[in-house]
Design goal:
Helix content of chain B: 25-40%
Number of strands of chain B: 16
Distance between the termini of chain A: 31 Å
Structural class of chain A: alpha/beta
Shape of chain B: globular
Radius of gyration of chain A: 21 Å
Oligomer: heterodimer
Shape of chain A: globular
Number of helices of chain A: 10
Order of helices and strands of chain B: EEEEEEHEEHEHHHHEHEHEHEHHHEEE
Strand content of chain A: 25-35%
Order of helices and strands of chain A: EEEEEEEEHEEEHHHEHEHEHEHHHEEE
Distance between the termini of chain B: 24 Å
Structural class of chain B: alpha/beta
Largest interface: A-B, 34 and 34 residues
Chain lengths: 386, 377
């Protein structure tokens, strides 16, 4: 089929097998990218692109949307810099709602390069959930930039909360609230109750201010919870305060997938390709996304980079497919679903006209371990080539 | 007697054989290839499947580290002193630990389990099969080396946390040297028995190697310098920056155990971590084995370290050798394991597909002819 409509385009990628995610797979098609870095059109066959259009022949290889990682510490936990380069963990108070991931992101972190080499183009970057309230998350676009602000896709995207072992170990060890799961829930409830009553005209309070968009349901509370009872606590508190809820990790979520589905929560699940870390996440595996997706829970596969380094997200999707997800489900779980979770699905997550031209060309089946990324493009600009 | 027939058999030390038979009896491989199957043999038709020797991971903390169990289960580093050669991994292995289930399900049938890298001299390690009721039953070679460590970990654990030597890389080398000198002057009749120096005697007599944790290129060179000074056998553990001095390493000739690469660059000394390392060192002529350093890379996904190393430049055959016969040689157990050859232990893994394919899964794992893992249908 030939599309003859003339369009103003910069780049045409043709002769590609296109995994659109939104509208299935086009076995041989083309994508037009316009001069604003947007996808102008996608269709089977090729376009009659205007003179001057750069033509990229994909040689029949697979073109996919850039991968989206809904749970990451990219730029905050810098690769190879040890303690000096770890800024994910403001573990000095159980409530640090006022800290912002943006203020800790190092644009020259080698992890960002690694992520691009693995076809990742968008990541939700979060403070580590060591505090009960850890701070503000944002969506980062992995553009080549020297300034973190120039990489922001959206901010804030959520407030990070940590339940379970991490805050207990951190503060209980100091003989400070919270030393128990009861204490953790109390700290969270107290902060949310205060946030509901916040009157900025009296005195400005950055912590309470940070929670306002959560209280107004403009963005979710992103709650790291691994044990089933911790997940249920998150659901309980989200209901009490009528909040949007995204669960992070959710290792034991497969035991209560129906309850999570009924609560209307979404899950940034895993990482499933991971080592056991603590008691609460001692049962990692791809049974988790399978159970959640089968129960109808919007589920993204994540890396929690650097827990699993960012560049292995495609291998995670491949393993999830090997463990029972359909290819379409596995693709969605690393593209459109995380984009929806983060609230940026109007911009990224699928190959559709009007979305950002965040594209990845793979030299084989993207779900195969041995496959490499040929190039990664963000908004029409190549940010990585093999 | 068991006959596994019609499989694609990766002998490792010989060619890949299509539609071959492997005959097993008494825990050993009796024959491989075109074999007449005796009438009394139980036949497992493995048509369409891939049969490989059990994988060998020469650097793990399986059974020793806890993994999710918290401090109560953690027995990795005897950090109370910088020099602890008297401690033995054998005394802390929990055979019921879930990490052994991971090994069997991942097709890993032999591991070397090591004390951690907190101490310049960390203790005695053992090479074990991944099944058994007691640690002693699992032993394939005991001891199989003395652990030592360079770089950040001993500096942090002793100098920084406990304000004692070593606080610098100079200090680490000095502590190791001093220990080896003391060991070479060891005289039990005169000074009484010393378990640590006794063990070091095995290193000095080259009955087993010193296995030294070294990530940075300069740490690797220090390890080699000391091994030469004392004329001892050495394996270089981790070897993260080894690819940056590939010629030097190849000429030195010591085996290298590379990894954990499927993990982040969590420390300064791993800043130059890359999966290209194994291919570069293979090409340079080094004796390369791949490690998970489990639990630092999840043992459940052991095969990925070979697949990604191959993707990043290692030959696929070389990657398979680096997970089988190469570590068997480095551990001194190649007479028993590491390839599918008549006379070796029947440590065999039946894969649904080529293990470097994402969809491949272990269907069954055999150790000495016994099925120790079977996938759910």
């Amino acid at each position: 089929m030939k599309c003859t409509k003339e369009v103003s385009a910069l780049i045409e990628i043709r002769n590609a097998r296109i995994v659109t995610v939104a509208n299935g797979v086009i076995e041989n098609g083309a994508v037009l990218v316009n001069d604003r870095g947007k996808i102008q059109a996608v269709a089977p066959g090729s376009f009659a692109a205007p003179r001057g259009t750069e033509i990229i022949d994909a040689g029949g290889r697979t073109l996919t949307p850039g991968l989206v990682d809904a749970y990451s510490h990219l730029g905050l936990v810098n690769q190879g810099l040890g303690w000096a380069g770890d800024d994910a963990d403001e573990a000095t108070d159980p409530n640090t709602a006022h800290v912002r991931a943006l203020d800790g992101i190092y644009p020259f972190d080698a992890g960002l390069t690694d992520a691009r080499s693995g076809g990742v183009t968008t990541a939700q970057v979060m403070p580590r959930p060591t505090n009960v309230i850890g701070g503000e998350a944002l969506a980062l676009k992995l553009r080549q930039a020297a300034v973190a602000d120039q990489m922001v896709l959206q901010r804030p995207t959520g407030i990070v909360v940590g339940l379970g072992e991490a805050p207990k170990a951190r503060y209980g060890g100091e003989k400070k609230l919270p030393a128990t799961r009861m204490g953790i829930a109390a700290v969270l409830r107290e902060a949310l109750a205060k946030a509901q009553e916040y009157k900025p005209e009296k005195a400005r309070d950055l912590k309470l201010e940070a929670l306002q968009p959560v209280i107004r349901r403009e963005m979710p509370l992103c709650v790291a919870a691994h044990r089933a009872d911790d997940i249920v606590t998150a659901i309980r508190i989200a209901r009490e305060f009528d909040l949007k809820l995204i669960l992070l990790g959710a290792t034991e979520g497969y035991l209560i997938a129906d309850i999570i589905a009924e609560a209307g929560a979404a899950v940034a699940a895993g990482p499933s390709l991971a080592a056991r870390n603590r008691q609460e996440d001692a049962d990692p595996g791809f049974h988790l996304p399978l159970a959640l997706i089968r129960a109808g829970v919007p589920t993204a596969l994540v890396t929690a980079h650097p827990h699993l380094p960012a560049q292995y997200l495609n291998i995670s999707a491949g393993l999830a497919a090997a463990h029972g997800l359909t290819d379409a489900e596995a693709w969605r779980a690393v593209t459109l679903t995380p984009a929806e979770l983060i609230g940026v699905a109007d911009r990224v997550g699928s190959i559709e006209s009007g979305k950002d031209a965040d594209l990845v060309l793979w030299d084989g089946d993207p779900f195969e371990v041995m496959t490499r990324v040929a190039w990664t493009m963000v908004e029409g600009k190549v940010v990585y080539t093999c | 007697m068991l006959a596994i027939t019609n499989a694609r058999v990766y002998t490792i030390t010989g060619p890949v054989l299509d539609g071959a038979t492997v005959l097993v009896d008494g825990g050993k491989i009796l024959a491989v290839g075109r074999v007449d199957v005796p009438a009394e043999a139980e036949v497992l038709n493995a048509a369409g499947r891939h049969l490989l020797p059990g994988f060998i991971d020469p650097h793990t903390h399986v059974g020793l580290w806890g993994e999710g169990g918290g401090p109560a289960e953690y027995d990795g580093n005897e950090w109370t002193n910088a020099v602890t050669p008297q401690v033995r991994a054998l005394d802390a292995i929990n055979p019921r630990h879930v990490s052994f289930d991971d090994c069997r399900a991942a097709g890993v049938t032999t591991v070397q389990t090591l004390p951690g890298s907190g101490n310049p001299i960390g203790g005695e390690m053992i090479t074990i099969k991944t099944r058994g009721r007691t640690a002693d039953e699992m032993v394939l070679r005991h001891p199989s080396g003395l652990k030592g460590a360079f770089g950040e970990n001993p500096k942090r654990l002793h100098g920084q946390n406990n304000k004692r030597m070593p606080a610098t890389r100079m200090g680490v080398a000095a502590v190791i040297r001093q220990f080896l000198i003391k060991a070479s002057e060891y005289n039990p009749e005169q000074n009484g028995r010393d378990l640590g120096l006794e063990l070091a005697g095995k290193v000095l007599r080259r009955e087993m190697p010193l296995r030294l944790h070294a990530h940075r290129a300069d740490d690797i060179v220090s390890a080699i310098r000391i091994a030469r000074e004392f004329d001892v056998d050495l394996s270089i553990e981790h070897c993260t920056e080894g690819y940056m001095i590939a010629d030097f390493l190849a000429e030195a000739g010591y085996p290298v155990n590379i990894g954990p690469t499927l993990g982040g660059r969590t420390k300064s000394e791993t800043a130059n971590l890359t999966f290209r390392a194994a291919g570069i060192l293979e090409k340079a002529g080094c004796h390369v084995s791949l490690i998970t350093d489990a639990p630092f890379v999840p043992m459940a996904h052991h095969r990925l370290i070979g697949a990604i190393s191959a993707r990043e430049g290692m030959t696929e055959a070389g990657a398979l050798r680096a997970m089988t016969i190469n570590p068997a040689l480095t551990l001194g157990v190649a007479g028993r394991v590491g390839s599918i050859e008549a006379g070796k232990d029947a440590d065999l893994v039946l894969w649904s597909d080529y293990p470097f394919r994402t969809r491949a899964r272990v269907e069954a794992t055999y150790i000495e002819g016994c099925c120790v893992y079977q996938a759910e249908r």
